[in-house]
Design goal:
Elements lengths: L1 E3 L38 E6 L4 E6 L3 H4 L5 E5 L1 E3 L3 E5 L5 E9 L5 E7 L9 E4 L4 E9 L2 E7 L4 H8 L6 H7 L5 H7 L7 E4 L11 H9 L3 E7 L22 E5 L1 H12 L4 E4 L1 H10 L9 E5 L14 E5 L6 H10 L1 H13 L10 E4 L1
Parallel strand pairs: 2-18, 4-13, 4-15, 5-12, 15-17
Antiparallel strand pairs: 1-3, 2-3, 6-7, 6-9, 7-8, 8-11, 9-10, 10-11, 13-14, 14-16, 17-18
Helix pairs in contact: 8-9
């Protein structure tokens, strides 16, 4: 099924556009709390920028829309089970979300609940005693803790930690789901390099079967790494895009990915960014002529209407929160009016939204 979108051509907004210009209405019941199974059975909205049309399909139909010679670039970051639940010596409940490593091997920066009640030197018992955390002090909104366990710390975190699911999913559940089930459902098939605090959720739609079919269709695949950081949970707190400052996130773009992009470009293939995280790395490393510089670093790039996309030719992504930087990125790539019209149509068509929801392919 195809439909024409008459919301206009891609925008080139001047500085000063408001986040309120990237809003849309979504019924509460269309916010996905669980993924569909199999993952590639999720719905797919295919938005063609040149024709201003969209087609409703399934993620498993992706080989229909990509052609031999195209390159799919995935983010291979691995989500660390960084959410720890336990109790204080007083018996009160406590929760830690590990944000990043601290100044020593056992030290971590964490978001704590209830942070205001914790005091320096206090020892917290986590995950039934499998881990312990000593409170070292406060760092702004974060709490510095020193973790300890019997055995290897990283292995203990992998075994006993819980996935840092988006707050709206946790709140909707009531009773806790089996943490082992979350470790499977909130990790992409590409996951390799440990370090993310949230999943690059576009990759959650892919299955071994789908990858085999894409390969058989002549679609090449490459990987990069961007460790999604705490900024993904931070709400936008300003009105204008001008005033927003993105959190920096660590990335690695290897020579193999750069070489694969060079081959794709030389044969006339399209570079398809699998997720906004992949797009941010590629555009952070792109030279004006579209070639890339391999390397590692931290990016705080904010892709917004008016930004030039020098590396990405297409984008596979999820449906994002209203007034979010991720929705702004998609609008920068495809045009604000066109994207909002597509979101409205997909909402009417009953698509599922956000991390565990359906997907969009922008060509």
């Amino acid at each position: 099924m195809g439909a024409a979108l008459d919301r206009g051509a891609p925008d080139a907004h001047p500085l000063g556009v408001r986040f309120a210009d990237f809003d849309y209405h979504l019924p509460e019941e269309q916010i996905a709390r669980q993924p569909v199974e199999p993952r590639d059975s999720a719905r797919l909205c295919v938005l063609d920028r040149s024709a201003s049309t969209l087609v409703h399909a399934s993620v498993r139909d992706l080989p229909r829309f990509l052609v031999a010679g195209d390159l799919l670039v995935a983010n291979d970051t691995r989500v660390r089970p960084a959410r720890l639940v336990g109790q204080r010596a007083s018996g009160g409940k406590v929760e830690l979300l590990l944000v990043d490593k601290g100044p020593t091997p056992a030290a971590w920066r964490a978001l704590a609940k209830p942070a205001a009640k914790l005091h320096q030197g206090e020892v917290l018992e986590l995950e039934g005693g499998a881990l312990r955390a000593k409170v070292l002090g406060r760092l702004g909104r974060e709490t510095l803790v020193e973790l300890a366990c019997d055995g290897d710390l990283e292995q203990s975190l992998e075994r006993h930690g819980r996935m840092p699911l988006p707050p709206y999913i946790l709140k909707s559940r009531g009773a806790e789901r089996d943490p082992a089930a979350d470790r499977a459902s909130y990790q992409t098939i590409f996951a390799k390099e440990r370090g993310a605090i949230a999943a690059p959720t576009a990759g959650l739609h892919f299955t071994p079967r789908l990858l085999e079919e894409l390969s058989a269709a002549g679609v090449e695949r490459a990987s990069l790494t961007l460790h999604v950081g705490i900024g993904t949970f931070a709400p936008v707190e300003c009105e204008r895009l001008d005033d927003h400052r993105m959190h920096a996130e660590d990335y690695v773009l290897g020579e193999d990915c750069v070489a694969a992009m060079g081959r794709a470009k030389s044969r006339g293939g399209r570079v398809v960014a699998l997720g906004t995280t992949s797009a941010r790395v590629l555009e952070s490393c792109a030279r004006p002529d579209g070639t890339l510089a391999a390397g590692a670093g931290a990016t705080s790039i904010f892709l917004r209407p008016g930004s030039r996309f020098a590396a990405c030719d297409a984008l596979f992504t999820n449906f994002h929160l209203p007034r979010s930087t991720l929705l702004v990125l998609v609008a920068a790539f495809a045009g604000r009016e066109r994207v909002l019209a597509a979101y409205e149509e997909c909402a009417r068509a009953g698509y599922r939204f956000y991390s565990y929801g359906d997907a969009m392919l922008v060509l």
